[in-house]
Amino acid sequence: MWAAPYHPSVRGGPLLILTVMLTITEDLYDRIVAHARQDHPDEACGVVAGPVGPGRPERFIPMLNAARSPTFYEFDSGDLLKLYREMDDRDEEPVVIYHSHTATEAYPSRTDISYANEPGAHYVLVSTADTDDAGPFQFRSFRIVEGEVTEEEVTVVKSY
Fold it and tell me: Which of 58, 103, 117, 135 is most enclosed, with most CB atoms within 10 A?
């Protein structure tokens, strides 16, 4: 699970330090987009886990949209519990939580914002609206902390 670093000058709790940029490998970027296209017209969803601390996405984990809906995604509670146990065992955390929008722009909905409970994660949205297999798409990343949405730059690199 994600834990905020402690800072000695902050009394009574952790200091949340967030970067305003997602750096992701080309391979992970392509896999997220492929998953979004594959599950279209339903929303796709998943996680990219990484080692606790550095905020580096490494392990692609596509999930099943238990809602099987073009307008809503939901992780299966059993699958999600299994994933979090596995990440704990591997000293990982959810670095990227992604899903697709099939008919709207890649921007968090009110529902997305209300369900965002990992303040250290990058929330990636891919819009597959008005696209075909080779068409354009939107790939955007956001930080969502206590209901506040901040878009961040996405940098795609060959490797880390």
Answer: 58
